[in-house]
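Worked problem 6 (solution included).
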Amino acid sequence: MDGDPKPAWLYFDVKSDGGWTQAIHESKLRIDKHFGWDIPFVEKVPEVVSEIKPAAERYIKRGYNIILGSAYGYSDGFLELAEKYPNVAFINPGGNTNAGNLQAIYGRSYEPHYLCGMAAGALTKSNKIGFVAANPFGVVNWTVNGYLIGARQTNPDVTLHVVYTGAWNDPVKERAAAQALVEQGVDVIGQHVDTPTPQIVAEENGIYGTGHHRDMREFAPNATQCSHLWVWDRYLIPKIQEMVDGTWDPGSQPYGDFIHIHDGGNDIACCGDAVPADVAAKIESEKAALANGKHVFQGPLYDQEGTLRVKEGEVPSDGDLWGMDWLLQGIVGTTKTL
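Solution. The predicted structure is:
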């Protein structure tokens, strides 16, 4: 990277979307405060290479030398930019392409969803909890599976009903999926989609929910009892400092950086008033255990067809996690999208 750090950010959606992009924007504000900056950003840059590259190059031509992204669909565009501009640093939350000056980063979101799953397992009276998922990618499937593993820490009899919308941000599909789960008799709804719609549906139906991206109590104060949080600033502030110090080395992680809950990126907002105090204490204990190296996916684990996926005493590799294309026994539903 040439010169003093000068970052700019490309946002997939508007900064006030209530979910993924707003969490990124709130992290940006905390980074600004830490460094005394006012990082410029552009909203609603679609996941299209022909749109991504010009948006980034407008900043690069004005001397910006750190370009931050915000979408899986930016991956190819960022790789092309990294090859064209070797003296510019690129970081893409949610991406999957990497190079000597490009790093894809993503939090191990199965960890906070495991913790929120513990709350869900304790809250259900029907032993049926639900989950509204986006696309059937490994990083979504791992949240669904992790959620059930957590739920069974507090309720071994629970089953998880899942619906995939096939979209990151589609409140119409999210409402349809959440309402379908309610009609199946679930009384807690988790989510890995961008908007707070599933939590709003839970609120409307007098049941509980757990949120994703941000603290969803803002939208469903009675329903939402736990939320997964993105706290990118906790990870990015040290990384930007590495750039300042000349020690940033994305090439040492050729598959990107999967960030544990104790390294920033992820956290939880827990717990709501409906979560029993002993369960809340157990969640905090498990969060500490994760920070000390506990793995959510400890074998033996079997998929819906009864195939052994993780052997006794083993845990999946990062490659296995990234490519997770199966759902656990105890999950009702498939990865087919709406």
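Discussion: The radius of gyration is 20 Å.
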